[in-house]
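User: Run a structure prediction on this.
Assistant: Running it now.
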Amino acid sequence: VNLDALKQELEEFIPHVRNISEHSIRKMSERDLARFKQFKKQGIAVKFGRFSQKENDQIRKNIDNFLSITGIDSAEKLLFTSRYPEDKETIHRLKVEHLFCQKLSEGIPRPWRLIYYRARKMFDPNNYKGRYTSEEKEKLKKYHTIYGNDWMKISEMMSRSNLSVAMKYSEIKSAINYGPWSKEETRKLMHAVEEVIRKRVETEDVDSLPSSEKSSRDILIDFEKLYQKLPWTEIEAKVGTRYWRQCKQKWTTVLTNKMTKGQPLYRGTKGLLARINLIKRLHEMKVEDANDINWDELSNIIGNVPRSYVRARFYKLKVSSVPLWKKKTFSEIIDYLFEKKLPELEEKL
């Protein structure tokens, strides 16, 4: 099929399709296009971003159904077939015969590739091995010297997931500080963020807007670009002495202090009120997943703060208040906070 015709058909569902490789476009036309059209008839839009609890449950259901149909005895064998060379040929044959691609993606309005990657992350037992030992960190450095960024190879040798070894290496590849930030480190961080934001804004075409709209849009861009979707690995490289997650956390702190003029927002009576109102608002929303929440709308509960600050406060609240929170769904966590923690906070207030 003509490649331009495929791009045109897919562009309705995947706006950035023209930036995708020819091979990926042809795969998407085989695995996704018919599904996307069917979802469109049902009034369902194609989704990107983080998976909801409902989607995760559907993936588990699809995997279980496929295992029962084929007799393959584990999700790990199905999704990480290369780990089982003696069964490889049989599993590949069963996957082709029973239409694995279609079965895995049933009921999920996302590109098949993203569903597959999500399934691999969910069912990889190597994802849940806890902290890296000093010995493992040294092995990781050694293997990276030999194999470079071949995370698939390194993950097999270390019995860790691809994502886990790649992220851990980003933390240990250079001398990283773990104590308080120095003034020089903070200056480097602010300069690095300024550089990436300026570069991004300069590439956007705002000249075509009327001057009245351009003025208000510039303000909106400035505010959003201060904290949304920044390239943290690039910023990490510019700072040099901190890994990307530390940079992100520190920038949230710097930005919050700037936006609130250094006023404490989450202590004493104000802190109690903020926790109480946050629990009440989340309970009123009746959402099933944290990814369905517009955290910007909740920022006014605490004050003029970025969304990451609100999410961080909620994370701390659930970890400190909800027993076995990792095993609970988002709605169960909210119900527990509303029924158990809220009365306690109101009494303290």
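Confidence is low (pLDDT under 50) at residues 205-221.
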